[in-house]
Amino acid sequence: MVLKLRILTQMTENNDIDKFIVINDLKQRGKKGKISGKYIYLESGSRKYIIKTLNENNKVSVKEIEDFVAFSSKVDKESVIAIVDKYGDVSYYFLSEIKLNKKGGSVDII
Predict the structure, then answer these.
(1) What global pTM score does this model have?
(2) CA neighbor of 95 nearest in space, from 74, 66, 59, 75
(3) Which of 27, 67, 72, 90 could bridge across to 79 with cysteines, CB 3.0–4.6 Å?
(4) How far is the first Cα of the chain from the last one, in angstroms, to the nearest whole number?
(5) What are the tens digits of pLDDT across the range 83-101?
(6) Residue 95's beta-bridge partner residues?
(7) Helix orientation angle between 16-28 and 2-13, rounded to the nearest 10 degrees
């Protein structure tokens, strides 16, 4: 019993339970995601996604989001954040980077 409790505690600390909830949600939507390290990788047709799983009760810094978007660009995948609520429901948010340049009022979108 103590071992099971330790494993469960480690899983909640590492956000693993939320990852499995997201994997299950993707499976129910007919998608097959793969957990690798901190992220979930998903291919759908010709598009490739990297998913960062967050729990609605945990804080996340803007720097952490910026680093995630930069990493996803570096590995040439679209960045998605999956937020798991207290009922186990998942909301997906697609992220993209925009660069605002002050060139006569124009905006460059990357």
Answers:
(1) 0.76
(2) 66
(3) 72
(4) 51
(5) 999 999 999 999 988 777 7
(6) 79
(7) 70
